[in-house]
Amino acid sequence: xxxxxxxxxxxxxxxAQALRSVSVEASLGEVTCVLGRxxxxxxxxxxxxxxxxxxxxxxxxxDGTDITRLKPFERxxxxxxxxxxxxxxxxxxxxxxxxxxxxxxxxxxxRKIPDEVFELFPVLKSMMxxxxxxxxxxQQQQLAIGRALVTRPRLLxxxxxTEGIQPSIIKDIxxxxxxxxxxxxxxILLVEQYFDFxxxxxxxxxxxxxxxxxxxGDRQALEGDDVRQxxxx
Length: 233
Known about the structure:
By secondary structure, this protein is of the alpha/beta class. It contains 9 helices and 10 strands. It has helices at residues 42-50, 72-78, 95-100, 115-120, 122-125, 137-150, 167-182, 195-201, 225-231, and strands at residues 2-13, 16-27, 31-35, 57-62, 65-66, 80-83, 155-159, 187-191, 204-209, 212-218. α7 (167-182) links the parallel β7 and β8 (187-191). The chain is globular and about 45 Å long. The relative contact order is 0.19.
């Protein structure tokens, strides 16, 4: 079942065009990877989906509803969770308080931290009273993903979760994504430059260049050299 349908969207920053007629889909129980070099529009695409940047053309549909003009908090209430590049946790709040910021789009009876957050990232349970800014980069990334999961998303949007992260935590994040995919009640859209990580997780992929989709395919197509060559600097 297709949860997200992005149709021919364009996005501008003033006179500069960042996205040109981009279309992508994400389905329940699948990981869709967006690949490309730095500066090709990957983060702009995710910001558009989350509602952080207005688009100048096209449409965005979530679970059959047109969300093109909805504000970020309205999309979050529908089930769109965005983990931005750089994590953007609250450094002066404790781990518990950071997780509880995910309560915002939830109705009062749902406002509790799901057990699976600590099952996926056990280190967070032992650090509930520590300030977010005192965590390592990898622990902050786990916290950012955990905060997104608190919202009970049906679409999880991840912007380069492996950036600047030590290998052991990259493996933990990969295992978490596999677990969430196998639940079959969530679609995952993942921007990634670490090719091996993307190859191991992706059910489908798109490659971007200069604000456009230049290649798309399924997991098998990622095994070839063509995609690697497009990502080479």
